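Two proteins were folded this term; both appear here.
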Amino acid sequence: MLTRVVRSSLLPSLQRPASLVGTKITGRTMSSSSLSTTEQLQSFGERHVTKGIGRIAPGVMKKAEGSYVEYLDGKRMLDFTCGIGVTNLGHCHPKVSKAAAEQCMQLVHGQCSISFHEPYLRLIEKLLPIMPHPSLDSFFFWNSGSEAVEAALKMARATTGRQNIICMQGGYHGRTFGAMAVTRSKTGYSEGFHPLMPGVFVTPYPFWHQLGLSPSTPTQTLTQLALNQLHLLLQQQTSPSDTAAIIIEPVLGEGGYVPAPKEFLVGLREVCDEYGILLIVDEVQSGFGRTGAWWAIEGSESVEGDYEGSSSSGSGDGGAVRPDILVMAKGLANGFPLSGVVSRKEVTDKLKPGSMGGTYAGNAVSCAAACAVIDAMEEERVLENVKERSKHLLTSLHALQSDPALAPYILDVRGRGLMVAVEFASPAPLGGGWDPVYQNQDTGKPIPPNLATRVAKKCIEKGLLLLTTSVYEVVRFIPALNIGQGEMERGVGVFEDSLREVVGGWEGEGK
């Protein structure tokens, strides 16, 4: 009886006519018309969006096109973040948006456990020719990079019969539970969520700063040190017979945009081949043209940004080090939620039906968008543009590093293609005085604290969206892959002005 009374009392209020919309119901206003200004929307978001999400810039985005984002207050920003490496073809690319819109009128949700749907299969057809190795021929699509990493970890454990996973110091793979366990770029992603997934072991990545060496340390030395530690790990902490996979980003993302030396990747492949360990290559951020090739694993790149492949043990055509499992997302569908896990059929045939799946996995609209992305990348010769714009960006940043007025503040300029970073000096090294990089640092200049954050904030004030990354003082450049020369020049100019203003102001204060 009580249930009937409650339901009866609710019906009139839930079925109010349109003329009454906007009146209060149990203390809440049904109308959204009161949110009429940017300030009101901003305040509404700050009140109702979880505090667990951080933002780098105030305001409410309204629309975007190409390399620009427009806010509700009319402000127009040059976007050097691309939604953290997602809108590789720029915002709202017409071919991609058109393909998605057309697919919306045919099939929006074709659940992968019911039947195949055409965009899913068409996407595989387009991906097969651009895989970094011909052995990668079995696909599973999901929604996000984290989910794809989860699937890769499950696949490695299930198909090898082993539990342990080796990840890289400084690596980032996501915020879901398994992905979070193999993420070691900073503690902020896992703080308060322990205990994490067991069976995870960490090995050094060949990054000079994490190894306590100078930026000029030869890559051969970095590789030797890192591989030596990996072999020790396999003898001291996780036996090869217990180790299912090694997971690596070929270019560290949240760890500071650090490309892995080719010889290190070859060394990993040799270790995996020797012990029957699977090599998981996470190309969520570095893949789909970001580094000047379809996949960062495909080759090496010089400081000036010229891409060049090289033959090596475990390589396929073009010099790619062969992954056993390749993970992709972000630029795959240019903003539509889609990720992918690719392996060899001989590996995936060991999986039981039903062990993979998901309600929205491989959404038809997202798959149609991804097909259009591949077409546009090829038709518009986007990879060639990446190489040209990369030369411009890296040359400009190296010029700043060579400027006597700025040199004391810049430790390193690094990256591949349009995945580029600048690492600044810091007056407060991690671990106090224990960091040998800072012990040996004699700039002769007062270094501002939090320099990366200061510069990024100043860039945002001047109309350029720019992100920081890693536990060190690093800013990262992630512009659209089809960015024009003028837009690149403008972005670099804003960065230079911001950097000079920040350090000049600090010096002017007599710090």
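Next, the second protein.
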Amino acid sequence: MEMGSSPRTVEEIFKDYSSRRTAIVRALTQDVDEFYGLCDPEKENLCLYGHPNESWEVTLPAEEVPPELPEPALGINFARDGMNRRDWLSLVAVHSDSWLLSVAFYLGARLNRNERYHLVLSQDMKDGDSGTIESRLLCPKKRLFSLINDLPTVFEVVTERKPVKDKPAADSGSKSRGSTKRSSDGQVKSNPKFDEGYEEEDDEHSETLCGSCGGNYNADEFWIGCDICERWFHGKCVKITPAKAESIKQYKCPSCMRRGRP
């Protein structure tokens, strides 16, 4: 397993968690056909790893005992052909969530008391409130959990338990999230944030998830919707800029392009 330098702070641990999660989400969604093919039931016990550089890998488990970090579920390939494909992917997603949390809290448990005390003491010195030191000692762990909890789980992304909103019809003002709006003829028009009803639409799409990284909708970012599968994506995740979107009459996401959908 790729480890590199061990994360030491809450921010570093969350970055490690987020990067590994992004990799696994990509394996189970955007790269799902490649992932499915690698999980050959005829091979030995295989594991799905997400690495801190946002790459994923299907390989044998670590040989060292005990391993450097908690290990993911062993033998995910054995059940592949004995289950419905969607159910199997959901099962891998649940085990991946468990693994991601175990790695994050394994690293979090290694934050020693002095490091946490130093962080709290610095904050108290700024606040001028030394009487709250003891009650804040657990804040780093709570903050780590809060940061993780703000992201949808891999299982939620794969099963769409937090469903991606269907794109509204053109006459109701469908839009590429953030700064542009797509009409039925593929034209992209400006859509200033100050348009009437903008705040209401922002609330409506607050649970929309990126089909690539699984991140939540953010009105400050450019999003684009696939005209085939009707999922939404961060422009940066699919390498589409607002300027490039202007020349696209019908957008196909990477998954639909690979599957050759019309």
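The CA atoms of residues 129 and 231 lie 48 Å apart. Residues 10-122+138-159 form one domain. These notes refer to the second protein only.
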